[in-house]
Amino acid sequence: MPASSTTRIIANGRIWSAAAGAAERGGALESPPQAIVVHHGRIAAIGPLRELQPRFPGAELFDAGGRLVTPGFIDCHTHIVHAGTRAAEFERRRAGESYQSIAKSGGGILSTVAATRQASLQQLIDTALPRVDALIADGLTTLEVKSGYGLDLDTELRMLRAARAIADLRALNVATTYLGAHALPPEHAGDAEGYVQRLCAELLPTVAASGLADAFDAYCESVAFTPQQVAKIFQAAQQCGLRVKLHADQLSNLHGARLAAQHQALSADHLEYTDEEGVAALARAGTVAVILPGAFYFLREQQRPPIEALRRARVAMAVATDCNPGTSPLCSLLTAMNLAAVEFGLTTEECLAGVTCHAARALGLHDAVGTLEPGKWCDAAIWDVAHPAELVNNLGARPLHRRFWHGQPDA
Ligand code: DI6
Ligand code: FE
Fold first, then answer.
1. What is the pTM of this model?
2. Distance between CA 411 and CA 395 in Å, rounded?
3. Nearest to 324 by CA among 121, 136, 144, 119
4. DSSP designation for 54
5. Torsional sign, CA 44, 379, 409, 13
6. Which 8-state DSSP code applies to residue 31?
7. Of 4, 72, 197, 290, which sits 20 to 30 A from 315 (CA to CA)?
8. Protein residue with its CA nearest to atom 5 in ligand 1
9. Is 356 helix (H, G, I), strand (E, B) or coil?
């Protein structure tokens, strides 16, 4: 969707946004009511209305009515495009089976792979859109979408095309990630090395050349790929010009954080089992830690990510839904923030930075979105709350007053 060419002033909003660098120091404070001038979808100026209005005569005025204004939310880790349901596995887990044992018996990721391979492009789009709309209703303006439920070339490309189509059908930015190393495809059962070889020599170069993927991701876990395999795959991805991300240390400590840092990854995601050494490596590399409390909650895990160590090392922490049919069927960033606060002890400031500026950095988009600053896209959310903490505190509330994407308010 094109950005609006109108010049518009969003007046009288209490702005919460991390200024450049402020997020690293622990977030930002809410300002007294200010005005945001938008020109061609981008922020032209922020300041007192009485100073800005004369500089932009004829600008259309939108009165935020003294409400809280934040950057539009960014979900930097989702598997929102997929087919089928795994509700039966949810029941098996409640009867005592583990996620790993279900995966080993042919369920798990591979059951979604089977369903996704059978789905047409249109079906993938149609089933994803209600989930996307739920996120939008919570103030989302940027969405990351991973492939990884096809694992063959055709289906992976179809998933990425569905993700790009979502950007044409809704007012939001979409960042796509080729998750080529999510699981071993069934046709390669017992032949991990053969698949890794094919991924590096054939699949990765083809997907990269298609232009449909903005980044590459892998799942480093006992039920997925070993650190040695991931290292090889990352090297191939980087040779194809793709930045990398990693599902790291979710169910065990395979030193995924260190591996991600060694490859200058944009982000290392999950991190429940990451140790101090892994945290230090993330800090040195400037790799974002993406916290995914939905999967922790749904799997009833006990091991929490090392939040205090991440804080001490000043690693930027993002918060995301991990929206996927198996371990985190969650399509609400407000709920993800609540889970991050209740389960992991994140502060309100950390939750907000986690779904705005740090999430932008996890996608390499921090020059374009994630804060409200001149030059960036005017992607913003206006909230009916008295205090930012209400965004984290209230489960199931719908406090969004209005969402702006590229300076254009939703109808
Ligand atoms: N993200 C993933 O990709 C895996 N776990 C996670 O948190 C597996 C998702 C799935 O079971 O489909
Ligand atoms: Fe995931």
1. 0.96
2. 25
3. 144
4. G
5. negative
6. P
7. 72
8. 327
9. coil
Tokens of 305: 């990510």
Please state, in angstroms and as integers, the Cα–Cα distance from residue 363 to each residue in 139, 318, 357, following that order. 18, 10, 10
- For residue 105, the 8-state DSSP code is T
Residue owning the nearest CA to atom 1 of ligand 1: 322
Q: Are strands 380-383 and 400-405 parallel, antiparallel or unpaired?
A: antiparallel
Contact yes or no for 223/184 (Cβ under 8 A): no
Tell me the backbone φ, ψ of residue 320, rounded to 5 degrees: -140, 170
Cα-to-centroid distance, 400 and ligand 1 (Å): 29
- The ligand 1 site (C-beta within 6 Å) comprises 79, 108-109, 112, 182, 219, 247, 250, 292, 295, 322, 324-328
d(CA 195, CA 209) in angstroms, rounded, equals 19
Rg (CA), the chain: 21
Query: How far, in Å, is the centroid of ligand 1 from the Cα of 99?
Result: 10
Q: pLDDT in tens for each of the 411 residues of the chain?
A: 555 668 999 999 999 987 644 544 445 567 778 999 999 999 999 999 999 999 999 999 999 999 999 999 999 999 999 999 999 999 999 999 999 899 888 889 999 999 999 999 999 999 999 999 999 999 999 999 999 999 999 999 999 999 999 999 999 999 999 999 999 999 999 999 999 999 999 999 999 999 999 999 999 999 899 999 999 999 999 999 999 999 999 999 999 999 999 999 999 999 999 999 999 999 999 999 999 999 999 999 999 999 999 999 999 999 999 999 999 999 999 999 999 999 999 999 999 999 999 999 999 999 999 999 999 999 999 999 999 999 999 999 999 999 999 999 999
Distance CA(133)–CA(251), nearest Å, equals 30
Reading the block at residue 255, the tokens are 């030193």
Work out which ligand 1 atom sits closest to the CA atom of 325.
12
